[in-house]
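FAQ
Q: What does a multi-component entry look like?
A: The components come first, one per line:
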Amino acid sequence: MSDPGIYGLALLVIPLGASPLVWLLGKVSKKLRNYFSGIITLGIFGFSLALFPYVQSGNLEFFTKEVGEVVISFGLGPFSLLMVSLISLLCFLASIFSPNYLKRYEGNLNTNKYFSLLLGFMGGMIGAVIAGELFTMFVFWELMTLAAYFLITFENSPDSIKAGNKYFLMSEGGALAILAGIVLLWVTSGTTQLAELGAMAALEPEFSISILSLFLIGFGVKAAFFPIHSWLPDAHPEAPSPISALLSGIMIKVGLFWIIKVFWELFSVSPSWGSAIAVIGAFTIVIGGFLAIVQNDIKRLIAYSSISQVGYILMGVGIGTGLGLAGGIIHLLNHALFKGLLFLGAGIVVYVTGTRKLDDLGGLSKEMPVVFGSVIIGALSLAGVPPLNGFYSKWILYQASIDFERGFAPFLLVAALFGSTLSVIYITKFIYSAFLGEMKTEMDRSPGWGMKTAVGVPAILCLGLGIYPRPLLDSIRPIIGRIPVFEGTWVAYMAAAFLLGAIIVGAALYALVDLKKRSKRKPAFMGGENEETIDTDMYFPYVDKLDFKVYPSEIYNSIKKSKMVNWLYVAEERNFIDPYVAVSWVGKALTRSFRWAHNGLLSRYLVWVFSGLIVILWLLTTQ
Amino acid sequence: MVLIQIFLVFTIIAALIAVEAPSALSSIISLGAVGFGLSIAFLWLGAPDIAITQVVVEILTLVILIRATIGKGVTEIRGNESKTLLIGSLILFGLGSAFFANYLSAFPEFGKSAIDVFSETPSQFYLKFGLEKAGGANVVNDILLDFRAYDTLGEATVLFTAILGAITLLNKDVFFGEGGEK
Amino acid sequence: MSGMSPIVKTVTRWVSPFILAFGIYIALTGHLTPGGGFPGGVIIAGCFVLLTLAYGKEKVDGVFSLKSASVTDSLASLSFLCMGLLGYVFGRGFLNNFIQSGFPGKAFELLSGGNMPIINVAIGFKVGGSLFVVFAYLALFRAIEEE
Amino acid sequence: MLTYLLAFILFAVGLYSVINKRNLIKIIMGIIIMEHAVNAFLILIGYRISGKAPILEKGTSVTEFVNSAMDPLPQALVITSIVISLGVVALMVALAVRLYQHYGTFDITEIRKLRG
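Then the predicted structure of the entire assembly, as tokens:
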């Protein structure tokens, strides 16, 4: 590999070329197709890892071609290579997860299409990440959006089509904003090449606000921060589970990647932008967390948690110091790992029981110990429990917000800490009601080896990167480059040793006190309250108490009742915080105002048509 | 010239009767009067081809309209009208006539064709070389079939499509399958 | 409805051949005298419409069938196109009047027009066929009366 | 000028029928009248005082013919327009008959109310 430049294009060409090939292969043999897609994705992952040494020193430009006034180019930087390796890793996990998962669709739906779209999706994401020019990026961005749309609507049920349409319309709105931003940028600065834009000192001051806000909204729709997050909790549950893992694991990260790239790599924006993004992030953390708590749908819960975690990344990125940026990017990476893991785990739960309702689940830990172990690692990582990787990135983020020298920095810190608490609450709900307690739904199937591998690999990575975060640091260092990042010392081994010690002590205590004999399996109970002690009159005043069964989701509903946050749930139920619905309201109001003129009567239309014609002719001829 | 105006006034009156008459038969016959009056006017205007076409086409139009209404048992075609639309149409009429009056002066004076006003018009070319290049004494047909045969082909296509649409609409088998409706 | 009175039928029987001949004449000599393919075609259609009205619509399916009318229509359109394409064969453009330029006849005579009479007759049968077909469908369309 | 105005009035009568009448057949009639008016207007534009039909007779010279004949171009186009209008009328009548069969009325307001 003397000139890695040309080979770098293989990252893009192979998945896109394999996409139709996989369809044809699937017509020959399903098994061959599954192996082929696994090998392709794994190969790209390996290749991207092999490319790491080349980008340590600086950016890698390959393939430049002039087409008219636009120069199509692709290039790799340390950050985009990190993204590529994440994309290919998660796509690999999804493609080894999928063959098992798709068994329930076999016969009804075209699973060849699924794999073909999966590879196309991967190609689109990689293209959007490695594009060295904004129009090229836009093309792949749209490819990504389209492939994701068809994957979300893959089940072809009315709900999934509705969710997919919502996703598609919102994404296209965002894409239009991006396109407007690109065009504006092109008009004002004369280039869309990232390399040339990076060399420029600053944007034209009078256009910078509009360009940057267009980019923030456009990429933000994909990144799904509050309040333009509303497609995410609808689309994630309806998509097939491996696709939810991809959507949440990396697709929203591609949006974040571009936000980071535009705001911190390309243009030296004023700090107020950073503050605004940080505040948006803080709001997103808290609101996403609150909304996640009350969900009764596994995947919806995890989807809201994704929004909350996106808030962390945005907060770190918005703080914008070396520490904050590092925390944001590391959290981005970590979140891709554990959220992919959690969605795949949820996919297994859905696969084996056939339901997504938390109330109907329980006691799966005995049946699937490997899956339970992996999911609990992911869950604890999400909650930020040491020695897992989530703790590491959250720690950096806390540190960054403490060091942040702005008036509202304490608010950020409080939001982050509070969000972490919320994440503990909702993830406990997930773990408890799905895996612990008594079994409520019989298992129809058992997870195959591919599924177990797909959750096992990220679990091992979570644990490994938590205990030994060196590779993480090494991959981050060239991205932040110029800014000194780490001050003071942090001994990961020590913390890990402490925590493991604590766990061992706890286990020893558990064994000594012999709680096991006194406890028996009960229906799921939550929040320190159980069936006997719960004040039923307070929470469920109208329920018949004789035949009474408490569901975990109902106990969490007590949060809904509290006055401080009640408004949020009301707003969510009535779609007040959904821009999609808001736009539809505006559209409906507009159409209602026009309805009197267009009452479906031919004659009235004719009057309009002829009057308009005459007026237009008059205007045209009197010039 | 006065004769032409008389015929046009006649057609306007016939058209008003056709529009306002409640009985289907009288309405359609008045419509026929419009067409036939115009065809005679065409004859006076020196366009015998169009006069012939107008007459035969009018006959077929009447037959089709009568089949569609009286043939189906509809003898009254009273077109109730609404007052708001009447106002609207009056406004429209005002607008239109203002527009027309504004641009009436742009037209050549009646009785003077473009041939008289301009020197090199396509019409002059057609008149001059019609017999020589196309071979027909009837210049209108020379234009239709030789100089502008593309237009005629397109026109045949339009006619074909319109008739195809009508047949598709009327064909029972298309809508209800073999064996009649429902 | 099986047609009109015997008087109408008899008159129609005698007159219709002349109408048909007149229509074809109008179409054929369109380049010499007023007329042409369009009025000729409408007259041809009118002849069959007259027959249909006089003898009742049952005859439409029997004697002069709808199918033959549509076939006539399509064949006439096709021959129009073929005349156009033959222009290419003779090394000229599409729809070129190759006969007139190749073998000029005497002016003011039938053959002087080159391929104009042929196209005129084709248009005549095209227009006549399609108009008769649509009239016949309107006449056969009995859904309203049945209700 | 008055002649042009008469053609315009004929057009206006047709337009009035199309806009104000609720009966489909009346609307079709209005469209037919409008077509007539436009055809008449085109022919009127091509009219030359004391002109002859654009058909060459034996014995007339071509230059004399050019100076005396009507404008043939509007006539040629109006012929196609007339025949097309017949086809369009057939299509409209077919539609109206279909609508009548479906709704039992030619009234467009009724047809609008009974949509579906």
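Q: Is there any commentary attached?
A: Sometimes. For this entry: The beta strands of chain A are 60-67, 70-76.
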